[in-house]
């Protein structure tokens, strides 16, 4: 059983963030055009325009489901399960897992040493989160691991 998925572009999309990002890019362009006609180019003005532009581009990308500068992935194989969404990468060995729980968009992995790990899937779009959930359930059933809240 091998499953691997790159989660870039699989985060929830937001029209509001796209609108906000577009507004920021337009504000940066209008600001630069007004500076050009007023001939008041200084380093400070370039910095302000660059901040508006970068913030706008980042907001547009996030609104379309991409997290710039962050790698997100899921890898399931015979020995381990590795999931990285927004926070730190979570890794668990199948032989150490006692049970797995799905509740409120979160995946909780309960190993035998009782140091459980929680991975949030609520930031992903519904289709992707359901696909990952089904693959984990399938792998857990093959390994004989108890799945709570299937």
Helix content: 40-55%
Distance between the termini: 20 Å
In order across it, which strands form the biggest sheet?
A: 1-2-3-4
- Total count of strands: 8
CATH class of the largest domain: Mainly Beta
CATH superfamily annotation of the largest domain = Pleckstrin-homology domain (PH domain)/Phosphotyrosine-binding domain (PTB)
Total count of domains: 2
**Low-pLDDT windows of residues:** none
Percent range for β-strand residues: 15-25%
Overall morphology: elongated
- The residue-averaged pLDDT reads 83
- The class by helix and strand makeup works out as alpha+beta
Report the biggest beta sheet as strand number plus sense, adding barrel if it closes: 4 strands, antiparallel
CATH architecture of the largest domain: Roll
CATH topology of the largest domain: PH-domain like
Question: What radius of gyration results from the CA coordinates?
Answer: 21 Å
What's the total helix number?
A: 3
Written as H for each helix and E for each strand, in order along the chain, the element string is EHHEEEEEEHE
């Amino acid at each position: 059983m091998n499953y691997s998925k790159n989660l870039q572009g699989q985060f929830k999309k937001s029209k509001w963030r796209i609108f906000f990002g577009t507004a920021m890019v337009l504000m940066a362009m209008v600001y630069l055009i007004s500076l050009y006609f007023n001939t008041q180019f200084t380093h400070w003005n370039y910095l302000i325009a660059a901040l508006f532009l970068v913030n706008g581009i980042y907001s547009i990308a996030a609104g379309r489901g991409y997290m710039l500068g962050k790698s997100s992935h899921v890898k399931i194989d015979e020995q381990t399960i590795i999931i990285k969404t927004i926070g730190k990468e979570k890794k668990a060995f199948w032989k150490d897992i006692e049970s797995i729980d799905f509740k409120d968009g979160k995946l909780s992995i309960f190993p035998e040493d009782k140091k459980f790990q929680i991975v949030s899937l609520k930031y992903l779009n519904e289709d992707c989160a359901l696909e990952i959930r089904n693959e984990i359930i399938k792998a857990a059933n093959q390994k004989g691991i108890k799945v709570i809240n299937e």
